[in-house]
Design a protein that fits this description.
Elements (H helix, E strand, L loop, with lengths): L1 H18 L17 E7 L11 E6 L7 E4 L5 E5 L6 E8 L2 E2 L3 E4 L5 E7 L7 E10 L10 E4 L5 E3 L5 E8 L1 E8 L6 E7 L4 E8 L9 E7 L1 H5 L2 H10 L4 E4 H7 L4 H5 L5 E4 L9 E4 L11 E2 L1 E4 L2 E4 L21 E7 L18 E6 L2
Parallel strand pairs: 1-8, 9-15, 21-24
Antiparallel strand pairs: 1-4, 2-3, 2-5, 5-6, 5-7, 9-12, 10-11, 10-13, 13-14, 15-16, 17-23, 18-19, 19-20, 21-22, 23-24
Length: about 350
């Protein structure tokens, strides 16, 4: 065990040397003007070693805005200026399979707020639980519910939207406990998978109503979560900003080619197939293009890299993503049909015709 700790510490120390001790991405709290400034430091469990490049995830607890997902700078630090309508933020950090505990910050306009996020680098495999606590009868979120793992002294509370995060949970069969005044306590077994996030929907039953508590679980692909897929899917479906397919959706449909499933999205068409069905291009008929009567050729990203630019690979002959990936290899698909739907990660002049984003399972 001590050997493994030594290796982990050595790797983190090397990262710290590379990162140096510069200021937060060249910014200071004054750059936020009269807004609240959140100064974040990501460190290891000891609090002494900075973690450059760690991903910081931040949700505006009381404001209807897209979550922030940014990488810490070379010194493990990050400055985020809060929007004026946000009064509270919930945030945590991720680095590989490791993640920090969730931190909640009450924001005050014009004031800096310092947050230290310590990554839990345990020798044993760990997973993560992300959940939503609601009233089983009314479906309303239940805030301040106490959530814990049996045998673990750590405890978190659900926020005002009923959401909670439990990080660094040892893998294997565990028992989750949820308590709130006025509701029957809930104890439920759950399987925790190394390096994955298990999502839990919990329905608490008001006492003394005689009915069983409701629990539903789904295991998220860790790769999709770290790349922001689930955040974009949540907000995209909330505001009609994109169409999303999970691996389960693809398995149910079982398409011969993934382009056939994408072409079922309203406004998307397959054209120019020729004799090779694999060479079909994806056209967005919602956006006119003077160079084609069929519509506007879409860009395609594979695992975050632009691989099909306006129907062509690397500027060469026309081809299609079917040449690179088959449906059973795909973990998630995002389809954006115009600039108004595009998230910042895929926006730009090159993406005016819309974007298809595919994520593989490995």
């Amino acid at each position: 065990m001590s050997c493994r700790r030594g290796v982990a510490a050595g790797v983190l120390a090397a990262l710290q040397v590379i990162g140096g001790t510069d200021t937060v991405a060249g910014q200071s709290a004054e750059d936020c003007d009269d807004r609240a400034a959140i100064r974040i430091s990501v460190v290891d469990e000891s609090g002494f070693i900075s973690i450059p490049g760690a991903t910081v995830v931040l949700r505006w607890t009381d404001a209807l805005r897209r979550p922030v997902r940014e990488a810490a700078g070379p010194n493990g630090r990050l400055l985020i200026c809060a929007p004026r309508d946000a009064g509270e933020a919930t945030l945590w950090a991720e680095f590989g399979d490791a993640s920090s505990e969730e931190s909640v910050v009450a924001l005050e306009a014009g004031m800096p707020h310092d947050v230290e996020l310590r990554l839990l680098l345990s020798e044993t495999g760990t997973g993560r639980l992300v959940g939503h606590v609601r009233d089983a009868g009314t479906d309303e979120p239940v805030a301040t519910a106490a959530v814990s793992i049996a045998g673990d002294p750590g405890e978190v509370s659900s926020n005002r939207r009923g959401r909670f995060v439990l990080s660094g949970v040892p893998v294997g069969r565990r028992e989750i406990t949820v308590r709130h005044i006025g509701y029957a306590p809930l104890r439920h077994p759950i399987a925790v998978t190394r390096g994955h996030t298990t999502e839990i929907e919990i329905g608490l039953v008001p006492e003394p109503v005689a009915m069983e508590p409701l629990v539903a679980t789904i295991v998220r692909a860790r790769r999709l979560e770290t790349k922001g897929f689930y955040e974009r899917k949540y907000w995209g479906e909330l505001v009609s900003g994109g169409v999303f397919f999970t691996a389960e959706d693809i398995d149910r449909r079982n398409p011969g080619r993934i382009t056939h499933m994408i072409a079922d999205v309203p406004g998307i068409r397959l054209r120019d197939c020729g004799l090779r069905l694999n060479s079909c291009k994806l056209y967005n008929t919602r956006i006119p293009d003077t160079s084609s009567s069929e519509g506007c050729l879409m860009n395609v990203y594979l695992d975050g890299s632009l691989v099909v630019r306006r129907g062509r690979i690397g500027g060469g002959s026309a081809t299609n993503i079917n040449d690179f990936v088959i449906p059973v290899e795909i973990a998630g698909v995002e389809v954006y049909r115009g600039p108004s739907e595009l998230p910042a990660e895929f926006a730009g002049l090159e993406s005016r015709c819309g974007v298809v984003v595919l994520w593989t399972k490995s």
